Input
Amino acid sequence: MELNQLTIKEAQKGLAEKKFSSIELTKACLAQIKKHDKKINAFITVCEKEALEKAREADKIISHKQSLLLRNKPLLGIPIGVKDLYLTKGIRTTAGAKVLDDFVPQYDATVVERIKKAGAIIIGKTNLDAWAHGSSGENSDYGATRNPWNSDYVPGGSSSGSAAALAASMCLAATGTDTGGSIRLPASFCNLVGLKPTYGRVSRYGIVAMASSLDSIGHFSRRVFDAALILNVTAGNDSYDATTPPKEVPDYTKGIEKGVKGLKIGIPSEYFGKGLDERVKDVVEEAIKKMEELGARIVKISLPHTQYALAAYYIIQPSEVSSNLARYDGIRYGLPRERFADEAKRRMMLGTFALSAGYYEAYYLKAMKIRTLIKKDFDQVFSKVEVIMSPVSPNPPFKIGERINDPLKMYLSDVLTVTANLAGIPGLSIPAGFVNGLPVGIQFLGPQFSEELLFQVGDAYEQATDWQQRRPKL
Amino acid sequence: MKTLKNKKINAKNAKLSVEEVKHVAALANIKLSPQEISKFQKQLSEILDYIEILNEVKTENVEPTSQVTGLENVFREEKTEKCLTQEEALSGAKDKYQGRFKTKAIFND
Output
């Protein structure tokens, strides 16, 4: 196995035992990028110089032994891709959009600060649908990203570059954002673990805002344990983000191997309706059987307002988008608004319409009320079961170009993921199988701040299967 | 899951008129070409048509949800902290004047 194919846990062991250095690990990632990224287009900016410098620093710290220091730096020496929505001080940040083509931030996002403090090495800024508007990666102003499992197919979006980079072994983990499924969908399409934390669990400060009441800050990894390790670093109250509650952060890796005996898992009938691809259904039903074998109790449940979630989302999200993108005036930074591409314009206009006088009550207010009903559905279900299990996408990965000319069809990719964002609950997407050589994931949803439980459930499934060990032929 | 209704949208039964598209674009400070106006009219109308499904739900006595944290009145201590220097703050501006951002005139003298 190549160094860049290791999990974080494995890499940390290797670094601590001096089997290899962070420089070697980082160079392996950079070499992989040089070899394959022209085709995959996972990165907008590669931070070769900075990464090697940080790797040298990491090796110095490791060589001076100090396991105490290693414990205070849980990501020491680990190369990580950062979605180009996260502000990185001194490193160009574009949000995947030409409006910010020459933007160099003067401060780090809180999450960037935290992962840097933990010793992580930022290997580059990953490609994404511009402004996080998209489900496939095809809306990037810097070219579409391709799925490393089959380059004719999309990797999913909007965190397309992060997912592709990790799947192609160009880094050991990558950060993302999930506003309507933008971590869980690419994770599902690229055979990765993707975490959407509870809204407010991780600070949004310094991350280009899409829809401020829906944006969740999460990440991709190869294993559930790695996902827990990263959340230990990123989670927690931030005085710069007033929507982060003062709730304490447990050690998410502790007790991760608890297992699922007696755990009640709810299967929502509305997520298995007519639009679900039969082959995806088969993969998910196999996974459900596996959970039963592991000792979980499967309970049929209902989330009755599921069919209204996408419509509510495509009012609330564009409305908040229209407000958040108003700041890009080209005066203080960035370039003029003429450079906005189609999808951004579509969403800004949709949102402006929904919020405008004469339409606010019929659209935005109505959507906010339906949001209440969707959240209530989850609250009621979580009084009966502990987690919910469902497909992530109604279909396997689709071909590049297949949906790009039909915005509404593209929006339908989100139909099973937007509910978690509307309710503010966490979701974990896990590799669960393949259809025609393309990955298919399953998601576990839990009540707010139940990430510990989700990691336990995900880890149990992961230990009993080997999907996550497969790698694409590049 | 509801499947997509394949209703034909034309200028006559479009949810959004050309005037409304122009109005909304102006509100959002977006310039549109004539081709873009008709393209977006069609696409936005299709989306708004799909959204009609929300009318099926009775919401008279339902409270709206604007945020899901339940937090209220989050304050911080009123003390001055480190902030960007003037140079840092101006570093991205294309038009500067004596250490300030330069913008278009608002009032025509």
